[in-house]
Predict the structure of Enhancer of rudimentary homolog.
Amino acid sequence: MANRHTIVLMQNSQNRSTRTFMDYDSTSQAMDGICTLYERKLKDLNPANRNISYDIADLYNFIDGLSDMSALVYDHSIQAYLPNDRRWIKQRLLQHLKKLANK
C-alpha cells in the first residue's frame, strides 16, 4: 500500500470552487501531506505560537470539518484507482502516525 500512487480529493466548504486535489507518489506521502495541511491551518490560526501540538482527535475533527475528503489509490493489479472515503483516510492516518511514533 505504501508505494501506491495516491490522489487526495478535498473540498473545504460547500462552495464548489474550494474543490482541490493533492497528488502523491505513495499513500504514506499522502498521509504526511494531510498532516502538513492541518499543521499549516494551525499555524495560520495561531501565528504567535512557535510550538503547536495536536492529537489524533484534533486531526480527525479537521477532516470531519471539511465538506468532503476522499482518496484515490492506484491498484496495479487492475490498473485503476480505487476510491476510499474519509473513514479509510482516518484509519490510514492512525496507522501512519503509529509507525512514525515507533521509529
Notes: The chain has a mean pLDDT of 93.
